[in-house]
Design goal:
Distance between the termini: 106 Å
Oligomer: single chain
Radius of gyration: 36 Å
Length: 743
Amino acid sequence: MTAEHMPGGHAARTVESVVRNELSGRVAGHVVQAGVINGDVHTGDLYVHPRRERVVPRQLVLPPRLFTGRTQHLAALTHDVAEQDDAGATVAIAVIGGPGGVGKTALALHWAHRNIDSFPDGQLHVDLRGFAPSGEAMSPEVAVRGFLDALGVEPAAIPPGLDAQAALYRSLVAGKRMLVVLDNVRGSEQVEPLLPGSPTCTVLVTSRRRLTGLVTRHGARPLDLGVLTEAEARELFTRHVGAARVATEPHAVAELLGWCAGLPIAISVVAARAARHATFPLAVPAEELREESERLDALDGGELTASLRAVLSWSYRALDREQADIFGLLGLAPGPDISLLAAAAFAALSRPRAHAVLQVLEDASLIQQHVPGRYRMHDLLRLYATEQADDDRSRDDRDTALRRLADFYLHTAFAADRLLEPHRPLMEIDPPHVPVVPGGRPHRMPDRAAAQAWLDTEHPCLLATHRLAVTRGWHRMVWQLAWTLTAYHGRRGHLQDDLVVLRAGLLSAHRLEDTTALLWAHQFLGAAYALVDRHADAFDHLGQALDLAQDAHDVTGQIHTHHAFTWLWEVQEDDQRALEHATSALRLCRGLDQPVWEADMLNSVGWFSARLGHHEQARTDCQAALALSRRHHYPQGEAYALDSLGYLAHHTGDHRKAEDYYQQSLALYRNLGDAYDEAIILDHLGETQAVLGHHDQARHNWQQALELYRTQHRAAEADRTQSRLDEHDDRERRNAGIPDGGA
């Protein structure tokens, strides 16, 4: 039967022609033999109702009225889209990622409305409810059906099956300058059927997950969204409550914004509550946020989308049981971040398993890997995670996990300390619990450099673990960790931190009624007080340490307490008393087979002899100390002895020899990472170079010493060095003929 004799005859052929022409413009490269079925046009797999007019969808929801900041992110988004457009091979896709409440949708909508003229053929938008309160994400079938409706396809003309519907959708948007916003996506598989195939289209995706599949398979550009900057956070809050009110209570505003930590949803909830009570002082909501246990309650705006706890819960519910358990534990972890190895010990997992779980949490934007192998959590996310741990785990279970983590830190710090200070007196570190679970054992480091790097990185976590041990009453761990850290603190000049941990260690030693612990706690605390010029306290604690050591016939304790006394008498400028203690320590040392300790005591005797003017005896002792240190591969003792020999050479007029000794000593201290003594040697080196007329070098070294002194909060040394620099600069100006106050 010919077309003329089919039902509809000429009219049907005319419609077929018209629609084929229409499709040739709208369905690029997809014109196939057509037929008419029940008054509709059938083109291959496509059903298009001929009577429906062409629709230009405008589905974007309202842009956020108080959108603030994000200048760099907006520019990056524009750049990524433009770069993909220029490539022209496929659709431009940008994936905006970040945790719940960080403003991903706001950024996408703001950019979309700002660039709406670039998409004259329409804008499609769908909330895929990837993290909806119901827990049920929108299926691709529902989403693509909605797009077909928006594009003007009659319901009867929509083919069955997702593949056919997606093909029709791609055909209808082919060649069009269209924007597709896929909001709140749960996974790559949810959005792949919604991706246009035409390079003329642009797709913005927002998700709490990283959607690696879109990046690897479709070349999507990821854009991770972090918290607002301090200035952006203040601007957002100001736009909510008004500039006049913000200016009236700057301290309350600063406190409020501090607790919100740059998270837009938190700022907006607090600002909305403040705006609702316009006559209340801003100090009221600030006080509500101050209490950590009530902070999430204060960030509840009364609606699901305006409650931080609710918004975070949608991500939490998407985790499996193991992932949720680890997320909760991470909220309890002491310190600002945690390493992969520490997290494995904490969770009693093998390293590969811990890494897999952490990767899931990172992909879900619940944690951030801010440097390779280290993970941290937003402060408010941490509060939420802690709540989940408190709800899901018993106190005993939480304590067991925390103790496992604390043991990891203690044992690893002890191993690092032995690499840095292999000749320190080895006290009994007898932890009450040795981890035996996979991943729970301490991290072993290959060498001194690795140990120093580990301690530098983990120092904030070690201090936080020490505070945790104090809070939990783990007294043996308190004093053990304090003892383990004291040599590192001395090297790096963390003198105030040393005092804090040692004072707590002394209290715990008293609680334990452990005489050995008390002896060493008093001895280390006395030495620490001497270094910060609290001399009365230093004498008190060192005196108690020496009494305990003598009563217990503890020769090692007596040697090191005498040695500590030498530092104290030196800062009191009583070199004779210092020499007496050094001589006592050396005498006791010679009764032991401890050549490294003997080198230290020989050098101390030589140093104080030199200060008292007994130069020949001093030279003999210091050279013997240097030889002993080198023979036993003791670089710290070698550096001490070279400093003493430099002092001797300087004060006997051999300044070039002194400079050489000091340079050798400085190189050793720098290699050891000993910033405390490095500052002293720089100071000494500058003195010698000034005498030699090397004024630029002297000034450079004094300036470095000054910076180290200030970093280490050594006020007296810093003041002395600053005065020396001022005198040097004044002399240089006078020598140049520049009057005082001249440029």
